[in-house]
Amino acid sequence: MEMAHSTETLAVHAGREDFSALGVHAPPLDLSSTYPVPHLEEGIASLDAFVEGKASAVNPIYSRLYNPTVANFEKALADLEGATDAVAYASGMAATTAALMATRILYGEKPRNHVVAMRPLYGGTDHLLSSGLLGFEVTWTNAEGIADAIRADTALVMVETPANPTCKLMDIEAVVQAAGEIPVFVDSTFATPIFQNPLEWGATVVMHSATKFLGGHGDVLAGVLATKNEKWAAALRQVRIVTGANLHPLAAWLCIRSMPTLPMRVERATMTATDLSERLAKHPAVQAVYYPKADDPVLQKGQMKGRGALLAFEIAGGTEAAAKLMARVRLCVPAVSLGSTDTLIQHPAGLTHRVLSPEAKEEAGVTDGLIRLSVGLESADDLWADIRQALE
């Protein structure tokens, strides 16, 4: 009987089960774009398996169909999320797009063209839905309006928790109940698998922009979806094969490299973020701080095991004041993205959520004075000294 392991142990060992048989200790990197097919019958059978959405086959054939380094990363992430399958993509947006496109396969001859979504979401996701680029109509609502927003042609309910950029928490279990038979997609990038496992609360598919905490060092672009649903997993692989939105093996290798330190990085950054949120709340130049409260019901029920390393705060003076703040910091790095070892500071209204309409920004709580902080691994005192001098 296989032993159950803690998240910390899984982070170190997941995806490495075949290393002993391979005779290696460090993760191997396979950069092959194609593989020999000495037996045509074997190649035909393998190709058919991949086209059906199988995770592997006797012969890899071509790296767009299968790559062992990518498969190791997928196995690791699936283990951390309590999933049966994970499918990796070239970016978080590629993964989100694949989830939407997979519904075309899953609903077959009767495609559904409607999505129910809740703001705030990452700006790129919001724009993808609002643009209608993929042929989906979207109804924006809140948690209380999900059931009423669902139609006969609804394909997916989409939420992000904690939400980008205000760190608003959503009760996944309540969302799933309101969605009924409609699959629920959860962007759990901010939480990471260390603090939240949406599948445990009934979500159908969970998405991570692995560019962020999973990669963790600001040197990789990646996305991944995890699910317990075999049909969803097959459809997600089929979309990847057809669109070619594959994760590069080197990017997968970098994510595997980062996995063992993920719990320590997330927990340390969360401690510092908690400290900074308290200091910011007391500063006269800060009008509001957005960070999950310790008594939030989502935290109290155990959906999230920690408050996270992201926070946002409001300052007076709008875009002009935000620009001055970003120009004055010396330790914090004024840049988009998040989840790196260093602290990143950015202005959502001008950057990550720039493409949203004024109405969408207002609904999402993205004001001109809002600043988002992704806390890294630096000293809390040093970070506060930098932010304070920039504010003052």
Account of the protein in words:
The chain folds into two domains: 7-260, 3-Layer(aba) Sandwich (Aspartate Aminotransferase, domain 2); 262-391, Aspartate Aminotransferase, domain 1. Helix 4 packs parallel to helix 11. It is of the alpha/beta class and 392 residues long. It is built from 16 helices and twelve strands. The strands form two sheets. A seven-stranded mixed β-sheet has the order 1-7-6-5-4-2-3, sandwiched between helices. It has a five-stranded mixed β-sheet with strand order 8-9-12-11-10. Helices cover 40% and strands 14% of the residues. The chain is globular and about 70 Å long. The longest helix is centred in the last third of the chain and has 21 residues, at 262-282.
Summarize the helices and strands and which ones pair or pack.
Layout lengths: L6 H7 L5 H4 L17 H12 L16 H14 L3 E5 L2 H15 L7 E5 L4 H9 L5 E5 L4 H4 L4 E7 L11 H8 L4 E4 L4 H4 L9 E4 L14 E5 L2 H14 L5 H10 L3 H21 L3 E5 L6 H4 L9 E6 L2 H11 L4 E2 L9 E3 L11 H7 L5 E5 L5 H12 L1
Parallel strand pairs: 2-3, 2-4, 4-5, 5-6, 10-11
Antiparallel strand pairs: 1-7, 6-7, 8-9, 9-12, 11-12
Helix pairs in contact: 4-11, 5-10, 14-16
